[in-house]
Amino acid sequence: PLNSVGFNSLAPELKGWRINSGSTPSGNTGPTSAFQGLQYIFVESSGSQVGQAAEISLCVDLSNWTIPGMSWNYHMFGAAIGTLDVDVSTDAGSTWTNLWSLSDDQGNFWQSAFVNLSSYSGVVDVRFKFTTVPTTGSPNWEADVALDNVGFTELTLGCTDPFADNYDPLASVDDGSCLYTGCLDPYASNY
């Protein structure tokens, strides 16, 4: 079962992230609505300085899962998007290990991501960290990044596309292994 994180319970610890519904205040960046439900969290980049970071960390006990994982949805749209990192700490935040990183404009839509936490056990901290970058020709306010639907779950990796030959109806996260047979000649009648 997915254990979702409620953003309202995190309000005192948002450290640069804001709870929002609807569009972000800046144009040409950010989502127009939540991925799921009514609220999401985002970083308002207007007025930010180069290299400035917004971070939020979540403490989770992984002992209830065999192959624990964290999944989330992200929205990274804008001409001046920086870098979104996901890090894990086993020492209450003294040191961090990067598990996932993505930079630059990813399009004006919500996307899904996950990290496999099976190499960790017990209580860990997981951090989302967004860092602004220098802009050339684009205003730094076109860099709002948003998160939604953050949850911890037992990972079942496999092909989640029902049209693939190796579709796995039990898979909870697509691992990129989907296979498709058929004619690969675009000029054939059965392409």
Topology summary:
Layout: E1 3-4, E2 18-20, E3 40-43, E4 53-61, E5 68-76, E6 83-89, E7 97-103, E8 111-116, E9 123-131, E10 145-154, E11 157-158, E12 173-174
Parallel strand pairs: 11-12
Antiparallel strand pairs: 1-10, 2-3, 3-10, 4-9, 5-8, 5-10, 6-7, 6-9
Structural account:
- The protein has strands at 3-4, 18-20, 40-43, 53-61, 68-76, 83-89, 97-103, 111-116, 123-131, 145-154, 157-158, 173-174.
- By secondary structure, it is mainly β.
- Strands 1, 2, 3, 5, 8 and 10 form a six-stranded antiparallel sheet that branches. A four-stranded antiparallel sheet has the order 4-9-6-7, with no helix packed on it. It has a two-stranded parallel ribbon with strand order 11-12.
- Strand 6 and strand 7 (97-103) form a beta hairpin.
- The radius of gyration is 19 Å and the shape is globular.
- The model is unreliable at 6-12 (pLDDT under 50).
Could you name the key traits of this structure?
single chain; 191 residues; mainly beta; 12 strands; 37% strand
Radius of gyration, in angstroms, nearest whole number: 19 Å
Report the β-strand fraction as a percent range.
35-45%
Q: Order of helices and strands, N to C? A: EEEEEEEEEEEE
Percent helix range? under 10%
Count of beta strands: 12
Overall form: globular
- N-to-C span: 40 Å
Taking the sheet with the most strands, its summary is: 6 strands, antiparallel
Unreliable spans? 6-12
Which structural class should the secondary elements be placed in?
A: mainly beta
Contiguous helical run count: 0
Q: What is the overall pLDDT average?
A: 83
